[in-house]
Design goal:
Helix content is 80%, strand content 0%. It is mainly alpha-helical and 158 residues long.
Length: 158
Amino acid sequence: MEISDILKKARIEKGMTQQQVADAIFVTRQTVSKWELGKSVPDEASLILLYKCLDIDNDEKKQLRSLSINKQSVKLIFFAIVFSPGIIGIRYFLYKTGIHENKKCIALLKAIVFVLFSLYLRSLFDFAAYLIIGVVVVLYLIYQFYINGLEIETDESS
């Protein structure tokens, strides 16, 4: 059983609305909704408040804690790898191969890093935010290619 299922089941059994749960544990209704939809995971402090608010039994407490730790651990491991000293190795490779001088490649790499970071923010944003992020990435790439084209024209005319 998933965290979302356990929380929703406990809330319904208690006869509470998402807003009532949110008010009881000092979060927004949207946060409770994201937990129940499986888009995000409650932190440790929220779990403790949920246990008390929803009268969750010991078996479900253990299951909730292990599920939330597993999901949080996966996110932490992912970001530790992405933003770890391994980045230094990648930068060294780019320097040695000369790619760091190619402005188009650098613009593309920046866009990829931006997309990876936006994926991290997935649980914080809705579809409209992803659309905006996509538009920003495309506009950024177009701008960088335009600037690169201007630099090439000035180099050729010199």
